[in-house]
């Protein structure tokens, strides 16, 4: 699924999206209530590119975005686990 198809699916399901974070949109949940899913690290990158420090970006997201509940179609936010590569 490409980004255009993803956006169309979210729109058809009347999912809410996080304004300004299209580049951080990574998918949607499956089940009784589809919601948009965002990568928190990509969201931080977006805010840093707009001039925030990484610390301010995390604080802004925690307080203004991730902590906001706007109904059953509220987006979900995830942190991906980075695996260490072991040589040897």
Give structural notes.
Helices cover 38% and strands 12% of the residues. The protein is built from 3 helices and 3 strands, in the order αββααβ. β1 (25-28) and β2 form a beta hairpin. α2 crosses α3 (54-66). The mean pLDDT is 92.
Task: Give a short account of the largest sheet.
Answer: 3 strands, mixed
Q: For the largest sheet, list the strands in their spatial order.
A: 1-2-3
- Catalogue the unreliable spans: none
Estimated structural class: alpha+beta
Give average pLDDT, whole number: 92
Order of helices and strands: HEEHHE
> What percent of residues are in strands?
5-15%
The helix count comes to: 3
Number of domains: 1
Helix content: 25-40%
Shape: globular
How far apart are the termini?
Answer: 37 Å
The number of distinct β-strands equals: 3
Task: Please tell me how large the radius of gyration is.
Answer: 14 Å
């Amino acid at each position: 699924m490409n980004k255009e198809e993803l956006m169309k699916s979210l729109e058809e399901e009347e999912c809410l999206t996080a304004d300004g974070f299209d580049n951080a949109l990574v998918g949607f949940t499956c089940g009784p209530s589809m919601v948009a899913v965002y990568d928190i690290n990509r969201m931080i990158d977006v805010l840093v590119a707009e001039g925030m420090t990484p610390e301010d970006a995390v604080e802004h997201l925690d307080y203004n975005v991730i902590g906001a509940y706007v109904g059953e179609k509220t987006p979900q936010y995830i942190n991906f686990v980075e695996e260490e590569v072991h040589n040897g």
